[in-house]
Give the backbone structure.
Amino acid sequence: MEIDVTIEDGVVADGSAIEADARRVLEALDLDEPELSIVLTDDARIKALNATWRDKDVATDVLSFPQQEDEDVVGGLLGDLVISVETAAAQAAEVGHDLQTELRVLLVHGLCHLLGYDHLAPDEAAAMRDEEQRLLTVLFGATAAAGLVERAGIVG
């Protein structure tokens, strides 16, 4: 298992904690030699990436760049996650938990996208919500925080 965490200049975050969380989630997924890259950045950088890759000129919380297009991801190079610590901190304050909890939620959400989950259609959203909760339970136990799909109320 290979996990590379990059913390960009000026960003204050615990890279070893996010790496440990990623390791726990990947172990629970039981993938064959998974490789994952995580970049912790700020709103300006993620806004530029969002504009370039999604034609959305706004900051966002997490971007996923999958390296596999197969429906059944079994391991290998999964892709890259880019997380805005700035947006994560604001969202954490909104929902009433700490930054590390929000970074875990964003890690799981982004990883679900790398694994092929999406939340555009209600049935897809339900499947992604369930997988987010399963993986968040790996990190939090029975007191898992709500995943992004559940918080967004995409599925009832």
In short: Residues 2-117 form a domain with the Collagenase (Catalytic Domain) fold (CATH 3.40.390.30). Residues 122-140 form the longest helix (19 residues).
